[in-house]
Design goal:
heterodimer, A: 390 residues, alpha+beta, 5-stranded antiparallel sheet, 10 strands, B: 139 residues, alpha/beta, globular, disordered C terminus
Chain lengths: 390, 139
């Protein structure tokens, strides 16, 4: 029996030797297979460390595995402190939540993501950076974490902010310009009415007084004709000044209200141009503030100017509706229409722009709908108690 | 000799002193101008005090304008005969005044020829509109 025991022991030893040999062969094979991978990883890191932007990779979990040297240099923190979740310590405290809410779900669901946030530079200044991350896969197609880069976009952000600020400023100035122009027009109209017209009227009355006195004298008859012609000329000047003053600022608006003024304006335009114009109110239009009345009157005036000058319309109808604290003015014509949005989608024409600025100033909006051969519909909606902004 | 006919009494309102004097001189030839005021509130007060036969008022006046003053006067004394003198030719204003019960509208620059006939017309209880206003507004 000892023989069979010895044989069994030898067999065991041989099996173990074979197993060890197999393991050694396997390890050598794996090492050979992994070498290019290790070399490529090293190559990537060497490349990444040279790159003048932040580069990073994550594990399969939303946590940083690797950051390039540039990131350490940028933030002034050693790489060991930044990997994992350490990098969040150099993110602006106001942006930390935004970051977590962006990259965690993206990495968890293996989606690409873009993320703008502020990162503290080594000098303590926060800089805006844009991180762009995509999922990466190994040669077998297994997900191997995200890879991405982050670039400094502070200058772009600053230009965008400056652009937005200057746009706000332009709107503000456009509003002020309308207000200033309205105020100036009203002042000139008032001056013309209260001063120039009054003096001319006075002169006209004086002429008729003299004419009457002269009638009683023997030499009067000849002089009478001259004086009458003077009076007529004076009245003609009064008429011109009156038109000028009315065009500058409609006095009727203050005395008779929006609808009556629009009705009169429509009648005047219809007489002069033949386009059939109507104006109808709904609701209590008398509640409109003077500023709201002027705003809607000017918008209607501008629209009617377009209807007559460009639309080739046979008729246009104006409706003023007051309800729920808002006034709505709608002007619909049956003209040839036009392309509202230009090629860049912006509304063309200074008239439309000024209408929109005016409505905006009163806290309202203007919409313009038009299409070729389908007429135009302008609708302004503003609060009935709109007041001047200054 | 029959006694001279009694002259009608007028109350005049205009805030331009020069024009006011000119209108007073014009009207004084034919009527008795019993009062001259320069704003709408004074006009309402004077109208109640003086009860003139005809009131001649400018539309553009400080404090209370001519139209609002006319409305107030007509509210107190519905039969008042009021002529508005105006630089405005807007029919909308004329209609507005007529609806309130104003009897006459005279264009200020035509006052030299139109105002005296206007006063005579409203004294008979009829409407008068300066020809420059179109004169065909619904009666």
């Amino acid at each position: 029996m000892p023989n069979s025991l010895q044989l069994f022991a030898v067999l065991i030893i041989l099996i173990q030797a074979a197993a060890i040999a197999a393991l050694l062969i396997q390890r050598t094979r794996r090492a050979r297979a992994e070498r290019p991978l290790r070399e490529s990883e090293a190559f990537f890191r060497r490349l990444a460390d040279e790159a003048p932007l932040i580069m990073w990779t994550t594990t399969e979990q939303p946590t940083l595995r690797y950051l390039n040297r540039f990131c350490s240099e940028f933030s002034g923190a050693p790489m060991a402190e930044l990997v994992g979740d350490g990098w969040l310590k150099v993110v602006h405290p106001d942006d930390v939540n935004h970051c977590i809410n962006t990259y965690v779900p993206a990495i968890t669901s293996r989606r690409p993501f873009l993320m703008e946030y502020r990162l503290r530079r080594s000098d303590g200044v926060y800089r805006w950076v844009l991180a762009n991350g995509v999922p990466k896969y190994d040669s077998a197609g297994n997900y191997a974490g995200h890879i991405g880069c982050s670039v400094d976009i502070t200058e772009r952000r600053e230009s965008e902010d400056a652009l937005a600020a200057s746009e706000r400023e332009i709107h503000h100035f456009a509003g002020r310009l309308i207000e200033a122009r309205d105020a100036e027009r009203a002042r000139i109209a008032r001056d013309l009415h209260d001063d120039v017209s009054q003096q001319l009227a006075d002169l006209s009355i004086a002429f008729s007084g003299i004419t009457e006195d002269l009638g009683a004298l023997p030499i009067g008859a000849a002089m009478e004709d001259t004086l009458r012609s003077f009076q007529h000329r004076t009245r003609a000047i009064v008429q011109s000044v009156r038109h000028l003053s009315h065009d500058l600022h409609p006095a009727a608006l203050r005395h008779a209200g929006l609808v009556a003024s629009l009705v009169a304006h429509c009648a005047e335009l219809q007489r002069a141009h033949g386009t059939i114009l109507s104006c109808s109110p709904e609701g209590n239009v008398d509640d409109l503030s003077p500023e709201a009345s002027l705003c809607l009157y000017r918008i209607a005036q501008e629209s009617l100017r377009n209807v007559i000058a460009h639309a080739g319309a046979s008729r246009a109808d104006i409706r003023v509706i007051c309800s729920g604290g808002h006034a709505e003015l709608t002007i619909v014509d049956d003209g040839k229409g036009f392309n509202v949005g230009g090629c860049d989608g912006q509304v063309k024409g200074l008239g439309l722009v000024s209408m929109m600025e005016r409505a905006k100033l009163a806290g309202g909006t203007v919409s313009v709908e038009s299409a070729a051969a389908r007429g135009t519909r302008v609708c302004a909606r503003i609060p009935i108690h709109a007041a001047a902004t200054h | 000799m029959p006694p001279p006919p009694t002259r009608a009494t007028l109350l005049l309102a205009d805030d331009h002193p020069q024009t006011a004097e000119r209108l007073r001189a014009l009207l004084q030839r034919h009527f008795d101008v019993v009062g001259l005021v320069a704003d709408g509130r004074a006009l309402v007060r004077a109208a109640a005090e003086l009860s003139p036969d005809v009131i001649v008022a400018d539309i553009s006046m400080p404090i209370v304008d001519g139209i609002d003053a006319a409305k107030a006067i007509l509210h107190e004394a519905p039969g008042s005969r009021i002529i508005l003198v105006t630089m405005y030719t807007d029919m909308v204003l004329v209609d507005h005044g007529l609806a309130a019960g104003v009897l006459g509208y005279v264009l200020k620059d035509a006052a030299g020829s139109d105002l005296v006939p206007a006063v005579r017309t409203v004294l008979r209880g009829q409407r008068y509109l300066s020809p420059g206003l179109g004169g065909t507004t619904a009666t």
